[in-house]
Amino acid sequence: xxxxxxxxxxxxxxxxxxxxxxxxxxxxxxxxxxxxxxxxxxxxxxxxxxxxxxxxxxxxxxxxxxxxxxxxxxxxxxxxxxxxxxxxxxxxxxxxxxxxxxxxxxxxxxxxxxxxxxxxxxxxxxxxxxxxxxxxxxxxxxxxxxxxxxxxxxxxxxxxxxxxxxxxxxxxx
Length: 173
Prior knowledge:
Order of helices and strands: HHEEEEHHEEEE
Strand content: 25-35%
Helix content: 25-40%
Radius of gyration: 18 Å
Strand order of the largest sheet: 1-2-3-4
Number of helices: 4
Shape: globular
Structural class: alpha+beta
CATH class: Alpha Beta
Largest sheet: 4 strands, antiparallel
């Protein structure tokens, strides 16, 4: 078998593995979400179902926001707010076109991270003095609606621009 055919088979297998992982993550997340109720579920309930958060952010009025990242294979990032009384106040999937529209030129990198969660990929472009952060998300009900949202940061870690494009992983099949 030629190297190009083997390389293509490996790439296809890798792509299928990523898709299967994304499906499994979504199925598990959906069950966990269904078992939690805002205002009733406790911090312990959230941790039991989702595990340790990727990051914990200070929220308004003494709340904490737990980040549950599903990148790079998944299409979702969850922010779960735990109120000062220890109850879940909100559970939100944050990789949405509405949230992307809130990312504005001049915003600090940490502000964007707190809003969208950890990106799937960070690419520095030294000659341009830019850093690109990419998040995979769904812009529709199907996996074929997979897109990449990119935020371009300058050398001062401030937003220069944003944009979305079709997920290049879809072109490998």
